[in-house]
Amino acid sequence: MAQVQVQHHAPVSGPISVASGHGGAQFMPTSLYVGDLDVSVTDEQLYQTFGEVAPVVSVRVCRDTATGRSLGYGYVNYNNPRDAARALDLLNFTPMNNKPIRIMYSQRDPSLCKSGTANIFIKNLDKSIDHKALHDTFSSFGNILSCKISTDGLGQSKGYGFVQFDNEESAQNAIDKLNGMLINDKQVYVGHFLCKHERETVPNKVKFNNVYVKNLSDTTTDEELKTVFGEHGEITSVVVMRDADGKSKCFGFVNFENADDAARAVEALNGKKFEDKKWYVGKAQKKSEREHELKARFEQNMKEASDKFQGLNLYIKNLDDSIGDEKLKKMFSEFGNMTSCKVMRDPSGISKGSGFVAFSTPEEAFRALAEMNGKMIVSNPLYVAPAQRKEERRAQLQAQFSQMRPLAIPSVTPRMPVYPSGAPGLGQQFLYGQAPPTVIPPQAGFGYQQQLVPGMRPVGPPMPNCFVPMVQQGQCPRGR
After folding, report:
1. Which domains does the chain have, with CATH numbers?
2. Mean pLDDT confidence for 106-130
């Protein structure tokens, strides 16, 4: 197992002990979750391994219902909490089929895991640190509900992991003591876990050292950029990006030693003019951060535009190909003052048969809708409706479909065939050359047409009022 060496930059009250105890657990369940199982591990192996610690009530390796392949985890149940706690202490991270297993108490309340309560995130971990080393490092701060190193498809560490305690106090204590410490000669970050949605909503609150600057003059050099930004703090590196021929791409990066200096430089230089060029200066972002910011900005602009034209903009479809912008404007101009009018076209310029018309007041738009919806233009009836954003249309359609109830289809209960008197009963065989008995088909029901046996009257309820294909004499319905 990997050994963890924690090096402190400053005095820390109390050493970080390496222990696998579970210090003052507030709950003592009898069910254990067993993860990181090799796909070859069976129920019998799990029962035998955990049965050596104490009598086991039940075990189960969870499998895919379609293929029967192991999902890599299972459950073990004991009679009392003491046996479960002892099994967790003795067997956690022990190899089973040459792969260390990971055990924790089975959490019956899924909301606790989903809420992220007392869950911390650790990154910049040395690749040699495994689940056990991480667990041993953090176990001294309190009872651990879950502990895991994130790995790739080959089982190699990705350099980050997660630890969830049973209370916030233990999590905060671990953050205070270990954040910024050196573990195996690498400075780690330890902080509260944030879900993706929360991380994306607070990118600007994170401190940064690297600054991005664009709209530079093509003659601006690295030294000139360093001179301008150097007035705001100590700089560790500066570069103007250039192409293969050495020509400036008119943007660059400046890295400050101190994050506060970087923030001051952004505030002071963003929007300033240098050599008739207005600079943009901001936090250097990853591609994913830029894409998220641009997407959020675009969606906000679309929402503002939609709100601005709420009740004023009409959507028209089923337009004849001969109708262009001018003809559409002429058709709707009698209802009021139009602010815009457009027929939608594909890249080759051919009409898509739809368009938009915007009025200056909601009353004018309502009047146009009432008069023009369904009106025959050329040879097509127009469809006119308030314009909606794609998300609004999707939500409206989902609401409509959710209110629709499927039609109840009467069930058809199979019935035993009825044999006429004199025919062999169930279990009897027919003699060679004997004609098979006449079988009375099931009673009429949904999708069945009652057939008549000569000499017998029809029985059962009347045929329901539904369409049933006629069957000619001597023919059978398809599929029978």
Report:
1. 31-199 (3.30.70.330), 210-284 (3.30.70.330), 309-391 (3.30.70.330)
2. 75
Dihedral (CA of 15, 20, 24, 25) sign: positive
**E strand spans, 141-209:** 144-151, 157-165, 182-183, 186-187, 189-192
Closest CA to 151 of 236, 36, 269, 262: 36
pLDDT tens digits along 390-411 = 666 676 666 666 565 554 445 4
How does DSSP assign 211-269, residue by residue? EEEES--TT--HHHHHHHHHTTS-EEEEEEEE-TTS-EEEEEEEEESSHHHHHHHHHHH
Give the pLDDT score at 297.
78
Residue 434 DSSP label: P
* Structure-model confidence comparison of residues 426 and 321, the more confident one: 321
Top-confidence residue, 473 or 182:
182
For residue 40, what is the DSSP state? T
Sign of CA dihedral 44, 47, 52, 57: negative
Distance, in Å, from the CA atom of 311 to the CA atom of 390, rounded to the nearest integer, reads: 16
User: Phi, psi at residue 36, to the nearest 5°?
Assistant: 55, 35
Task: Give the C-alpha separation, 368 to 363, whole Å.
Answer: 9
pLDDT category, 114, cuts 50, 70, 90? low
Listed residue (88, 84, 72) closest to 35, CA to CA:
72
For the record, the structure tokens of 338 come out as 């139009």
Q: Is 422 helix (H, G, I), strand (E, B) or coil?
A: coil
Q: Which two tokens stand for residue 305?
A: 């535009």
pTM: 0.40
pLDDT for 473 equals 47
More confidently predicted of 26 and 155 = 155
Q: What gap in Å lies between CA 264 and CA 283, rounded to an integer?
A: 11
Q: Kindly indicate the confidence band of residue 135, based on its pLDDT and cuts at 50, 70 and 90.
A: confident
